[in-house]
């Protein structure tokens, strides 16, 4: 169990009135005592007698019971971590953040909103709307949280350089994301890992210019959202990022992951 999962366990134990310690992500004596209390009180709901179970298996069973209590499928309460439990705990995290179960990924349809009138992603339309691809005139939009450079974590930045036509919209998106998630959650979700914006180059795997060449595209956490990864592997496909995508889509930005199920790191102010 990693720190994030143990913090989730501590949250549900606190909500159950069993735990009053810190949310520190450590399965310490107080956490295990709270787990033991839950297991002792709910033996009848487990798949077998938990007498020989390890502390870790008991903790997993507590998470499975917490999912059950909130109507989130996580498989039987057997204390074993498999794909059902993994998906259930991801849903539990969203529930604790929002107060509601996540929407199934197949039902999360990208918004068609385009309030800023972004052009289609063709070179002719991009040139007509944004002008020639260049870094001349790009403006720095401050980010409410500090951004670590994804390819060199020893470096960071406080702003993103973009085309002036998208600057106000980007500012609104970033402010909304920060208001929703806050500093700590942004770091937990790796939204501080910045993969770059302006780059006058062809699109990867293609010959025509990337939207990065106009400074109207941004990459986020490229390590966990690689170009060819679909929703089964990409981090940004998980339900806890729904508010992230809603903030972009309400401004008309397009995430290629949401629209095409690849390149989940990439958002752009151009339609597809």
Radius of gyration (Å): 22 Å
Q: What is the string of helix and strand elements?
A: HHHHHEEHEEHEHE
Biggest β-sheet, characterized? 6 strands, mixed
| Total separate domains | 2
Q: Termini separation (Å)?
A: 40 Å
Helix content class: 25-40%
Average pLDDT, rounded to a whole number, is 93
Query: How much of the polypeptide forms β-strand, as a percent range?
Result: 5-15%
Within the largest sheet, what's the order of strands? 2-1-3-4-6-5
Key descriptive features of the protein:
6 strands, 2 domains, alpha+beta, 38% helix, 11% strand, elongated, 272 residues
What does this structure look like?
With 272 residues, the chain is of the alpha+beta class. It folds into 2 domains: 3-102, no CATH class; 107-268. The chain has 8 helices and 6 strands; from the N terminus they run αααααββαββαβαβ. The protein has helices spanning 3-15, 29-41, 55-69, 83-98, 123-130, 164-188, 242-249, 256-260; strands at residues 139-149, 156-162, 193-196, 217-220, 254-255, 266-268. A 6-stranded mixed β-sheet has the order 2-1-3-4-6-5. Helix 1 (3-15) crosses helix 3, helix 2 (29-41) packs across helix 3 and helix 6 packs antiparallel against helix 7 (242-249). The chain is elongated. The two termini are 40 Å apart. The model has no long low-confidence stretch (mean pLDDT 93).
Brief overview:
It contains 8 helices and 6 strands, in the order H-H-H-H-H-E-E-H-E-E-H-E-H-E. It is of the alpha+beta class and 272 residues long. The protein folds into 2 domains: 3-102, no CATH class; 107-268.
């Amino acid at each position: 169990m990693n720190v994030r999962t143990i913090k989730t366990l501590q949250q549900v134990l606190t909500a159950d009135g069993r735990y009053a310690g810190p949310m520190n992500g450590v399965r310490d004596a107080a956490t295990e005592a709270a787990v033991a209390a839950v297991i002792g009180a709910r033996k009848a709901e487990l798949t077998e007698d938990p007498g020989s179970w390890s502390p870790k298996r008991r903790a997993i069973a507590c998470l499975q019971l917490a999912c059950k209590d909130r109507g989130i499928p996580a498989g039987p309460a057997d204390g074993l971590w498999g794909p059902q439990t993994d998906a259930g705990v991801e849903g539990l995290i969203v529930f604790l953040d929002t107060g509601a179960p996540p929407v199934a990924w197949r039902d999360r349809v990208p918004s068609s909103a385009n309030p800023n009138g972004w052009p289609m992603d063709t070179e002719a339309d991009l040139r007509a709307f944004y002008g020639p691809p260049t870094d001349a005139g790009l403006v720095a939009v401050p980010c409410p949280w500090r951004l670590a450079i994804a390819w060199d974590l020893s470096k960071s930045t406080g702003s993103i350089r973009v085309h002036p036509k998208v600057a106000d919209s980007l500012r609104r998106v970033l402010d909304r994301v920060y208001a929703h998630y806050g500093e700590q959650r942004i770091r937990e979700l790796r939204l501080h890992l910045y993969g770059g914006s302006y780059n006058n180059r062809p699109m990867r795997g293609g010959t025509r210019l990337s939207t990065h060449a106009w400074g109207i595209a941004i990459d986020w956490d490229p390590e966990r959202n690689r170009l060819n990864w679909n929703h089964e592997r990409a981090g940004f496909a998980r339900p806890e990022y729904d508010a992230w995508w809603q903030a972009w889509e309400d401004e008309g930005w397009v995430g290629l992951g949401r629209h095409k199920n690849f390149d989940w790191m990439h958002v752009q102010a151009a339609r597809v």
